[in-house]
Specification:
The chain is mostly helical. The protein is built from 10 helices and no strands.
């Protein structure tokens, strides 16, 4: 399998570009989900050791684009404890990326995402956002998933969108959350030797495509009612889980 886009023919390259555009749109709209689209889409033609660091770096740049607009809505108190847990869980996930069989772990993440959608669809909700212990525990699970697959979102998504706060608070908190976790994940990947010059050049080429998708998704969010947004989040989670499971089973 080719290592970067520089080794792809035109058709596989078009598949990567399409995945980057769709993932960017998903990220700009919901505040999450881009990594799942990007990793699954790129992994069809590129190895995970290339797809995952690329996804992490594109996520960082997408979050920086959105950060000025969501700063005031972010729930910083819960985010602080969530990120503390991520720091604890991230090394475990990075180790799993190189030491654990990829196929069963991808099946697991697909099941986790689908379970998250089902739990939210059944109307389960929190009375309020978790305290320090609950948020830190959620962060440990999220950090492990982020280090292994750049897919640390489901635990945090469930936490924020099951709480009574307005959807703008949940979306903003997730964007800030992903900025921090993806910075940590990128640093971990660099320490592990996964960030190379060809990879950085690949990110530079794909960045304009991802930012175009993010801009379109953010525009759609501003035109969407809060009640409709929650429904779209459920459908998005279900679609992402099916995408992950299908790619894993038939790859």
């Amino acid at each position: 399998m080719p290592g970067t886009v520089w080794e792809l023919s035109w058709l596989p390259l078009a598949e990567v570009v399409a995945a980057i555009l769709v993932g960017g749109f998903v990220r700009g709209f919901g505040g999450f989900g881009a990594s799942m689209v990007w990793v699954v889409g790129m992994s069809l033609v590129l190895p995970p050791a290339t797809a995952i660091p690329t996804s992490l770096m594109l996520e960082v740049l997408a979050s920086l684009q959105l950060l000025p607009r969501i700063w005031r809505d972010t729930h910083w108190r819960s985010l602080r404890w969530l990120l503390a847990g991520v720091v604890l869980g991230l090394p475990l996930g990075t180790w799993a990326l190189t030491a654990v069989a990829e196929r069963p772990m991808r099946l697991l993440i697909g099941i986790v995402v689908l379970a998250t959608a089902i739990i939210m669809a059944c109307g389960w909700h929190l009375e309020d956002l978790p305290g320090p212990v609950g948020a830190t525990t959620t962060g440990v699970v999220s950090g492990a998933l982020n280090g292994a697959f750049a897919m640390g979102g489901p635990p945090a998504i469930l936490m924020y969108f099951s709480a009574p706060q307005h959807v703008a608070v949940g979306r903003a908190s997730l964007i800030a959350f992903f900025l921090c976790t993806d910075l940590l994940g990128t640093g971990s990947a660099a320490v592990g030797g996964l960030v190379t010059w060809p990879l950085l050049a690949q990110v530079a080429v794909l960045l304009p495509v991802s930012l175009a998708g993010v801009g379109l998704g953010a525009l759609w969010f501003r035109r969407t009612r809060a009640t409709d947004f929650r429904r779209y989040v459920l459908w998005l989670l279900a679609a992402l889980s099916c995408l992950t499971l299908t790619q894993t089973i038939f790859s």
